[in-house]
From TrEMBL:
Record keywords, A-Z: Membrane, Transmembrane, Transmembrane helix
Protein name stated in the entry: Membrane lipoprotein
Keyword Transmembrane helix: yes
Residues passing through the membrane, by range: 17-40, 47-69, 75-97, 118-140
Species this chain originates from: Malus baccata (Siberian crab apple)
UniProt superkingdom: Eukaryota
PROSITE patterns in the cross-refs: PROKAR_LIPOPROTEIN (PS51257)
PANTHER family in the cross-refs: MEMBRANE LIPOPROTEIN, MEMBRANE LIPOPROTEIN-RELATED
UniProt feature coiled coil, ranges: none
Amino acid sequence: MAASKSNLRSSCSFPNLLLSCLNFTLFILSVTSLVPTVLLRTPPTSMGMAFLMISGISILSSFVGFYSQLTHLCFITHVSLLLASLVAQLLGTLALFTKERSTMSLIKSPRDPREAKLLVRLECGVLMAMLMMQVLVLVMSCVVQSCWVREYEGLEAEREAMTKKRSRRIAKVQEESMENAAKIAEVKAKELDEKMKNKYGQWVKTSEFEG
């Protein structure tokens, strides 16, 4: 049982480490995605705010992912944020990739058109990288969660086995105690019987002698 438990933990350690690296990379990409939007226009327009919200959701999902890894909690919240971030990143990437000119007109950047176009394409590239990283984080989160579930089930099985073993030991001790008590009672009964026989025999002999 201990060997299987150690094997399970070692099998979960690599996915857990990989998930941490992916979460950290996603966090870096999410922070990086803020830069082109801020450089395009400050304060941003409604379109710029939409891209900032996409980055913000991704950053939040990274933080929740780190917290989920540390506490083994908030898995559903983390997955929900990942899915919401995936949808937002997909829409943002499609908007920048397929409708670049209309997106640039909605951003209303005061910069040089070439520079603005470069920043928009940079934002599109970062969003695509975030999208792929988000998919990897989602997959690895599910893998790590399944490892945690198996580990928890293993601990519960081990605890149940220890409880049964302890119950058997207690039952065995109680049985031995009852057997010992029965033997002691039997020995005492025999001793009492012998004493009564000896005493009765002496009384009979004395009565015969007096008669």
